[in-house]
Amino acid sequence: MTTPRLVAFDLDDTLAPSKSPLDPRMLETFAALLATVPVAVISGGNFQQFEQQLVHPLRDRDGLPLDDLHLLPTCGTAYYRWSGSDWALQYAEDLTDDEKTRALAAVETQAKAAGYWESETWGPILEDRGSQVTFSALGQSAPVDVKKRWDPTGEKKDHLRRLVQAELPDLEVRSGGSTSVDITRKGIDKAYGMRRLAELTGIDLDDMLFVGDRLDPEGNDYPVKALGVPCHAVEGWEDTDAFLTELIPTLR
């Protein structure tokens, strides 16, 4: 692989624990990378989640420019850039009302039939994120350790993904974070987001590097790998931090 001109990341379980802010150590490493090359984050969470986990901690750092930070929430179905004073939406591939209704109904029906609809939850199980519908088995605010115990091998959410995809052949269904399944318009996934990123930055896909924890065929990072973008697989933010610690000196 050539030296990347842009490094892109998944967020949950790649840069941070699920739905949690970046660890201070990871934040330091991420800031060092951003000071060296353009960086993109493309993940299943909505923009508000990006703000809580990543953006607010970065903005607390004096002197760190955000012009080269590209944010692609909801699996790349939306794209934000820093305008100098705030984040500006560049595009959003929103689901239609009919697509949202069918997606919400399908994932609830299949989760209940499979025995994955839990009675003890933390926050909403189903979310309409505009350009994405997301199912979170334990709710959006479930503790990280509880999420890890619910589906340690990923078998449950991969099974649910297949069930929902069979019911929604015209939409894209991907296994997302530790307990989530994401539904977007057909063909509007992380590969789509990466292609749009290449168009809007002028950086070829071959000159990018993507880092993610779900590069397996069931995962929502896999479309990036299938697109041919150079990828590096990790199993948690600690892996990412160690990888970047070795990578950053080679970029200077």
TrEMBL record:
<keyword id="KW-0479">Metal-binding</keyword>
<dbReference type="InterPro" id="IPR043169">
    <property type="entry name" value="PMM_cap"/>
</dbReference>
<keyword id="KW-0413">Isomerase</keyword>
<dbReference type="Pfam" id="PF03332">
    <property type="entry name" value="PMM"/>
</dbReference>
<keyword id="KW-0963">Cytoplasm</keyword>
<dbReference type="InterPro" id="IPR023214">
    <property type="entry name" value="HAD_sf"/>
</dbReference>
<dbReference type="InterPro" id="IPR036412">
    <property type="entry name" value="HAD-like_sf"/>
</dbReference>
<comment type="subunit">
    <text>Homodimer.</text>
</comment>
<comment type="pathway">
    <text>Nucleotide-sugar biosynthesis; GDP-alpha-D-mannose biosynthesis; alpha-D-mannose 1-phosphate from D-fructose 6-phosphate: step 2/2.</text>
</comment>
<keyword id="KW-0378">Hydrolase</keyword>
<dbReference type="InterPro" id="IPR005002">
    <property type="entry name" value="PMM"/>
</dbReference>
<dbReference type="InterPro" id="IPR006379">
    <property type="entry name" value="HAD-SF_hydro_IIB"/>
</dbReference>
<comment type="similarity">
    <text>Belongs to the eukaryotic PMM family.</text>
</comment>
<protein>
    <recommendedName>
        <fullName>phosphomannomutase</fullName>
        <ecNumber>5.4.2.8</ecNumber>
    </recommendedName>
</protein>
<keyword id="KW-0460">Magnesium</keyword>
<dbReference type="GO" id="GO:0016787">
    <property type="term" value="F:hydrolase activity"/>
</dbReference>
